[in-house]
């Protein structure tokens, strides 16, 4: 099916929601079918040895007065595929998107990329049905052209070194479209990104890597770039941040994670303070999935996070205030992140506030250029939401702390097409920023 506008999309999407039966039921971790808790370590794993596990992590940094802690974390060493097929109708690029259920989605059904599959899924470890359209990404044909292919990180606070292969493939072939999929015009996708909890995380990370114009070439009519910092200066700054943030990460048994305990009554793992997240179990039924029923553990964050870019016009061109951010599970020492990326509810009363958090929380309505609540990865995180914002920060000084710098949208877009440079939260915002007039918007 080909969607013409947002109204037609809403009709199609509502129909897909009504067409299937879904059920997600909380279940104690010790009762999850196919999963076990190791009696020695307390680690939670699948009996097949595949999919993922929940283990313990000790994290510290070598710089003076740096925080250190232990926590549960998801370990999923295999790389999945997140891919979007693109084709052209009437001179407009269209994206093949999927209405997909994930057990952690707060509204059950969200808009997914053409392919969203772990290695275990597409190699059919679960003995389920084949992943549709996967061959366009694993074995592109003569009528397929790969525009974007990078191993990209995912949430470093909750995943240990997790990466997925992000891909955009343009096709001129005749693609049979399953009823749970539709072709969405790129301008309509820009509208859908402004709707709360609709476009899922896996779609957003791939959308950040979409090429600018036909054939992946820069969009016509672009003004010459006038960045505050050139590439050499940015690389110098980023390398310095990597040297400053020298993480020490050690996996430890889950039952040795300090401050966390297993609540046998509720069958979940919680932090003594009630903050951060819980490790819970769920039983799932979904008649539209490759496997129609399964059980699994999930991380359930406490409260809603705030993720924001401050934007400023410099030399007549919009820049974004970018952070060199270190997280416990980040694949490399640091990645480029948004200006603000935190859950204010996790901050202790006497803890220092992250730079620019108050600027974001107290922004005037006229400063807010983008403001949407998006869900995080619904396959591993239960009802995880963040408020994503882009603010006009023309009053923010050019001088910034050493872990921050100004980059143009195009500079960050180019960095985002290289694996392990831009974190997934920044890529979500980048996909949205590129739709804003005057921010390097693509057509």
TrEMBL record:
Gene3D superfamilies: EvaA sugar 2,3-dehydratase subunit. Signal peptide: none annotated. One of its GO terms (molecular function) is lyase activity. InterPro entries: EvaA-like (IPR005212), EvaA-like_sf (IPR038153). Residues 8-210, 232-432 form the dTDP-4-dehydro-6-deoxy-alpha-D-glucopyranose 2,3-dehydratase domain. This is NDP-hexose 2,3-dehydratase. It comes from Streptomyces parvus.
């Amino acid at each position: 099916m080909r969607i013409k506008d947002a109204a037609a999309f809403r009709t199609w999407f509502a129909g897909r929601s009504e067409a299937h039966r879904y059920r997600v039921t909380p279940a104690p971790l010790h009762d999850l079918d196919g999963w076990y808790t190791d009696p020695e370590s307390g680690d939670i794993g699948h009996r097949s040895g595949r999919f993922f596990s929940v283990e313990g992590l000790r994290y510290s940094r070598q710089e003076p007065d740096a925080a250190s802690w232990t926590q549960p974390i998801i370990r999923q060493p295999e790389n999945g595929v997140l891919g979007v097929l693109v084709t052209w109708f009437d001179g407009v690029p269209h994206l093949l998107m999927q209405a997909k259920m994930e057990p952690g989605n707060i509204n059950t059904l969200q808009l997914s990329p053409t392919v969203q599959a772990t290695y275990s899924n597409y190699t059919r470890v679960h003995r389920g049905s084949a992943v549709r359209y996967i061959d366009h990404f694993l074995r592109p044909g003569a009528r397929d052209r790969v525009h974007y292919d990078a191993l990209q990180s995912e949430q470093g606070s909750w995943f240990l070194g997790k990466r997925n292969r992000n891909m955009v493939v343009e096709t001129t072939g005749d693609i049979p479209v399953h009823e749970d999929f539709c072709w969405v015009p790129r301008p309509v996708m820009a509208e859908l990104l402004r709707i709360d909890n609709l476009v899922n995380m896996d779609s957003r990370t791939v959308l950040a890597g979409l090429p600018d114009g036909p054939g992946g070439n820069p969009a016509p009519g672009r003004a010459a770039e006038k960045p505050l910092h050139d590439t050499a200066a940015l690389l110098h700054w980023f390398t310095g941040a990597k040297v400053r943030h020298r993480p020490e990460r050690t996996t430890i048994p889950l039952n040795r994670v300090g401050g966390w305990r297993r609540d046998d009554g509720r069958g979940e793992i919680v932090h003594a303070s009630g903050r951060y997240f819980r490790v819970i179990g769920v039983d799932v039924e979904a008649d539209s999935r490759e496997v129609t029923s399964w059980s699994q553990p999930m991380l359930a964050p406490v409260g809603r996070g705030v993720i924001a870019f401050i934007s400023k016009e410099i030399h007549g061109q919009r820049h974004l205030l970018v952070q060199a951010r270190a997280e416990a599970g980040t694949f490399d020492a640091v990645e480029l992140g948004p200006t603000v990326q935190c859950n204010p509810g996790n901050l202790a009363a006497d803890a220092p506030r992250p730079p620019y958090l108050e600027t974001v929380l107290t922004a005037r309505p006229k400063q807010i250029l983008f403001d949407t609540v998006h869900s995080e990865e619904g396959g591993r995180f239960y009802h995880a939401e963040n408020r994503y914002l882009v603010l006009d920060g023309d009053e923010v000084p050019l001088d910034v702390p050493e872990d921050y710098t100004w980059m143009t949208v195009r500079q960050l877009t180019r960095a985002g097409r290289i694996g392990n440079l831009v974190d997934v939260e920044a890529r979500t915002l980048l996909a949205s920023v590129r739709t804003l007039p005057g921010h390097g918007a693509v057509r």
